[in-house]
């Protein structure tokens, strides 16, 4: 500070000497010029510099505050996402358990329906076999009856002669006539 004051004193001393001119001594003039420029800058630039630094400080603080808010929002979203993930995992586990239960239930239903279908097929098979047996038995009976009837007709035709045949017919006509009288 003393150098700045000395520079102004020597500046005053030169002006009082009444001479004006260029000082070519670089070592003497540079400190004077620098002290004047620094003095003016400090005097006039103090407020501007202070305002610039305050503005910069406010911007930095605002940036830090915004960053903190964003960080808190991100943490909150992360917690929500974790909670949602946990809910989804629980729900997925429920679906998985329900799926296994559903698969097991469907397997039992399929087994039961297969058993019912097999029982129905077995019943149909047994009915078909029984029907075929009855049809075969009826066919055998019909053949036996036809053979017996043919045999009886053959025996009757060989045993009956015309006279016996006529007497049988007359006897049957008589029987029909007496039955008709009874019904009238």
Descriptors:
ion transport, 3 helices, ATP synthase subunit b, chloroplastic, mainly alpha, 184 residues
Short description:
This protein is mostly helical and 184 residues long. It has 3 helices and no strands.
Can you put this structure into words, describing what you see?
Pfam families: ATP-synt_B. It is found in: Membrane; Plastid, Chloroplast thylakoid membrane. GO terms for molecular function: proton-transporting ATP synthase activity, rotational mechanism. Its main location: membrane. With 184 residues, this protein is mainly alpha-helical. It has a domain of 111 residues. 93% of the residues lie in helices and 0% in strands. It is built from 3 helices and no strands. α1 crosses α2. The longest helix has 134 residues.
What is the arithmetic mean of pLDDT?
82
Shape: rod-shaped
Q: Low-confidence stretches at least 5 residues in length (pLDDT < 50)?
A: 11-16
Helical content (DSSP H or I, runs of 4+): over 70%
Q: In what range is the share of β-strand residues?
A: under 5%
Number of helices: 3
The tally of beta strands, per DSSP, is 0
Helix/strand structural class: mainly alpha
InterPro entries: ATP_synth_b/b'su_bac/chlpt
Subcellular location: Membrane; Plastid, Chloroplast thylakoid membrane
Coiled coil: 64-98
Pfam families: ATP-synt_B
